[in-house]
């Protein structure tokens, strides 16, 4: 297996090409950190972009939803999709408004999603969704029954045409603006958990799981 995804005319980063990344390590790290992907597709001449939860298993992205979903019915029929994942890492405040930016990491994957039929693969994908949200939860919570599996469609997008784009670092000000008396720098972002809120119907005697109190991203 190659360590990179060779870029083609559809995946090569054109604007700011130095920010393009094609190695598996960078791409998989972004996919594994993100919670939400946006699935772009077209039906009857109308473009749609739908946010949904996803998980990477090996060299494929899995995403799911209701079996009655228009997106999933259309995509499972072989409609080409564009799946994007974006992580915001910080606001870049330059000395000029024009040069303000954001530090970010993003992935774009192209291809045709395939409907998952095998129950074992469905369960593997649902396990990946659950463990991505909260490692350790799958073994403790009730797992899907047959009715729930039938009501859920899961699609697999093989990672074949994929690239990442990453912006890091300080502002890129014009040389003539460097002397301006304007604060410039980066305001970093990070995803942090708040205080857990117990469901009012949850027995107060049930202890808070360690995987909740120790969760971090």
What does this molecule look like?
- The protein has 217 residues and is an alpha+beta fold.
- Helices cover 19% and strands 35% of the residues.
- It has 5 helices and 10 strands.
- The protein has helices spanning 24-33, 70-76, 119-133, 146-150, 210-213; strands at residues 20-21, 36-43, 46-57, 60-66, 80-93, 101-112, 114-115, 152-158, 161-167, 185-188.
- Strands 1, 2, 3, 4, 5, 6, 7, 8, 9 and 10 form a 10-stranded antiparallel β-sheet that branches.
- Strand 2 and strand 3 (46-57) form a beta hairpin.
- The longest helix has 15 residues, at 119-133.
- The protein starts with 19 loop residues before the first strand and ends with a helix.
- The model has no long low-confidence stretch (mean pLDDT 92).
């Amino acid at each position: 297996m190659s360590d990179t995804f060779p870029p083609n005319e559809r995946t090569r980063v054109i604007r700011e090409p130095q920010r393009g990344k094609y190695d598996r390590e960078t791409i998989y790290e972004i996919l594994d950190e993100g919670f939400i992907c946006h699935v772009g597709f077209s039906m009857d001449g109308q473009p749609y972009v739908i946010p949904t939860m996803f998980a990477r298993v090996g060299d494929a992205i899995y995403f799911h939803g209701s079996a009655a979903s228009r997106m999933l019915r259309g995509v499972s029929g072989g409609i080409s999709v564009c799946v994007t994942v974006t992580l915001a890492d910080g606001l870049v405040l330059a000395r000029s408004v024009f040069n303000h930016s954001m530090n970010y990491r993003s992935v774009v994957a192209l291809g045709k999603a395939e409907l998952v039929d095998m129950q074992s693969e469905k369960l593997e994908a649902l396990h990946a969704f659950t463990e991505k949200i909260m490692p350790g939860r799958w073994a403790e919570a009730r797992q899907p029954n047959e009715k729930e599996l039938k009501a859920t469609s899961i699609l697999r997008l093989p990672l074949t045409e994929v690239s990442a784009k990453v912006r890091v670092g300080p502002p890129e000000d014009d040389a003539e603006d460097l002397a301006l008396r304007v604060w410039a720098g980066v305001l970093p972002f990070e995803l942090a958990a708040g205080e857990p809120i117990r469901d009012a119907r949850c027995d107060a005697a049930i202890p808070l799981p360690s995987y909740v109190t120790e969760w971090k991203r």
